[in-house]
Structure prediction request, 326 residues.
Amino acid sequence: MIKDGFGRVHDYLRISLTDACNFRCTYCMPDEEMQFKASAHLMQVDEIDAMAGMFVRMGVRKIRLTGGEPLVRKEAAEIIRLLSKYPVELTLTTNGYRAHEFIQVFKEAGIRSVNVSLDTLQAEKFFAITRRAHFQQVWDNIQLLVREGFHVKVNVVMMKGMNEEEIIDFVEWTKTQPVHIRFIEFMPFSGNHWENEKVVSYQQILDTIAAHYDFIKLRDDANATAKKFKVYNHEGTFAIISTMSAPFCTTCNRMRLTADGKMKNCLFSKGEVDLLSAFRSGEDIMPMIEQCVIEKEEALGGQFTNDYEKIDADELTNRSMIRIGG
Ligand code: SAM
Ligand code: SF4
Prediction:
């Protein structure tokens, strides 16, 4: 069992398969032309398998594949199949563009739940956010995943001036379809032009929805990041991920491996531990994993507090989101 200095058991690993992406979301990818890591610097397929296996032996019960866009990695299907042998809940977060090519792979790997990112229901705005004219493809793939019986969570990053007037449209979607909308407060990362005025907070989102609907609070899973709700008689649900205004660090169980094999004990941690180099030189990485988690800060990587209006984004030390793996 992997425990940190505050007694939190860590049994959830998020693995980034690549820092490359077929989209260019403004809040995730820095403006300057991204130099994606050459593949020799990335964890190779057998290395991902072996390192994931070590985490599983140490008590990991859930693995999420992410990126960059995990489904652009050319060995994505092979990696999914390999990891499916472990006794974990295997899942992934994707922009959805290539999901239709993977339906069978997901099923064979026992994946039941998929998070798809979609920040707007308007094709033109989708282009403005992602720099790609792929709204229809993502929409169709969400419909396909729902039809094929997957539990589909839709990640919506909320930003003032971008999509806050679509909150009701997203909740309305849950009326007729079993989709699970997750409004995410905009978070600061290197190069993403974060400003506190752009955050649409948990309370603002909830107030907007309360002005239109009667809804109930659902029970949240232990270690959940999302606070879940349901409008009466709707098929789906909605949730809010309030990282900035009401962080959920006290029950955190998450660890991350970047695509280049660095371990991060928190999305906002300044430090990283180079597991891949150690693994390649034959070192035992298990004590390194334990030590990395022991050093975890109590909240938000020790970099800020929920008083997010006072954050100076230039003073934070971190990679961009696309390089960490969301
Ligand atoms: N490419 C995949 C996707 O878009 O779902 C997986 C990687 S992406 C980095 C993972 C999640 O992080 C997505 O839901 C994305 O919307 C979210 N994300 C990226 N940058 C963010 C930010 N600055 N604040 C909040 N969420 C962010
Ligand atoms: Fe790519 Fe996902 Fe980042 Fe958008 S949010 S640029 S789809 S990694």
About this structure: The CA atoms of residues 119 and 251 lie 27 Å apart. The radius of gyration is 19 Å.
